[in-house]
Write a structure and sequence with these properties.
The chain is mainly alpha-helical and 355 residues long. It has 14 helices and 6 strands. Helix 6 runs antiparallel to helix 7, helix 10 crosses helix 13 and helix 11 packs across helix 13. It is elongated and about 120 Å long.
């Protein structure tokens, strides 16, 4: 029986034919696909795609892997592709070299961001303000860490925030000297001075508790007076017990109109005015004649304002002075405090201990 030619024409090619055609097409298109993938990868990696006016601050916690970091960067809008970041880091063999820290990212390419993370170019620094430092000291420390200390000092002179009740009775003519609470702070180099000042003030408000504030109110004193007195105590004596006694002596002198005659105020005047003489840091008789509202030898009462930034110990001593029969005290080079009832005893102590 003869086959029908029409039926032969209508028969479909075997399935193997389609597979062979598809395979050949796929093989032929593979170079183009690879080129496209490489182009997309290079585009994502070497060009910045994010756009924002203010740098984004991101903290990379210890132990985070490349995938988690990539996801975090994408979530924060720093990069567009998590996987482009992961692939780039992996190809360079640096997936385990990403360093923890806080970073400030401007719109950058993945290549630049990865480089910052590998080098550890964290924008955050640790700033420690020791007890007794004044604003100039803090400014110099900021300069040493690559920040603008002069801008910080300028902002302390005009800073005010109604949220902080401790600033309520501070004279408008005075800056934040005395209110920059000693502690260690984490701060971004790129952050404006207001950010650091606000962080410090928030800390002071926590440390200067409601109980302490109520004790000040019951004594009919102001926070500004307490901070000023505390700054004197901070720079005069070291131990808590001695500070309470010195606080009692200084408040007693004020109550009877006796000059405070605190050497630390003269040292502050000389530092802030840039006065240098040949006394090797000692206070000379000529120094006590400097015409300044901070000079407690020349003018009675508290100085015009704080002479440094006191810690909690000095603030507590200023609020809770200890009564004693003493009117005079002397700090020895070894750090001891010698207390005296009379000027004669005090002079004898100076002759013995300050040779």
């Amino acid at each position: 029986m003869r086959e029908n030619p029409t039926e032969q024409k209508n028969q479909s090619p075997p399935p193997d034919s389609y597979r062979r055609v598809f395979f050949r097409l796929s093989i032929g298109a593979m170079p183009l696909i690879v080129i496209c993938l490489i182009a997309v990868f290079l585009y994502e990696t070497y060009l910045p795609h994010a756009s924002y006016a203010i740098a984004k601050e991101i903290t990379i916690s210890p132990g985070l892997g490349a995938r988690t970091i990539g996801a975090l960067l994408k979530q924060k809008g720093v990069i567009r592709s998590k996987w482009a970041f992961v692939i780039y880091i992996s190809l360079r063999g640096e997936a385990s070299s990403l360093k923890q820290g806080s970073y400030s990212f401007a719109p950058l390419s993945i290549r630049h961001i990865a480089s910052m993370l590998v080098r550890g170019d964290a924008d955050e620094i640790s700033l420690t303000i020791p007890e007794g430092w004044n604003t100039i000291d803090i400014g110099r420390s900021l300069d040493a860490r690559g920040m603008d200390g002069s801008a910080f000092i300028a902002h302390t002179m005009r800073y005010h925030d109604n949220r902080f009740v401790l600033l309520t009775d501070k004279p408008a003519t005075h800056g934040l000297e005395g209110y920059l609470f000693p502690d260690t702070y984490r701060v971004f180099k790129s952050a404006p001075p207001e950010d650091l000042i606000t962080k410090i003030m928030e800390n002071l408000e926590k440390k200067f508790t409601l109980e302490l504030r109520e004790a000040v109110r019951l004594q009919n004193k102001t926070i500004f007076e307490i901070i000023t007195m505390a700054s004197l105590i901070e720079n005069e004596v070291v131990s808590d017990a001695d500070r309470a006694l010195v606080s009692g002596i200084l408040w007693k002198r004020l109550s009877i109109g006796m000059p405070l005659q605190v050497d630390a105020t003269i040292a502050y005047i000389k530092k802030t005015q840039g006065i240098v003489n040949n006394t090797n840091g000692a206070i000379s008789r000529e120094d006590t004649k400097i015409d300044s509202s901070y000079n407690t030898y020349r003018y009675r009462g508290l100085p015009a304002g704080p002479i440094g930034n006191p810690g909690l110990s000095a603030i507590t001593a200023a609020i809770y002075p200890k009564s004693s029969p003493f009117f005079y005290y002397l700090s020895t080079p070894e750090g001891r405090t010698i207390f005296s009832k009379t000027l004669e005893e005090h002079n004898a102590a100076k002759a013995e201990h300050l040779k």
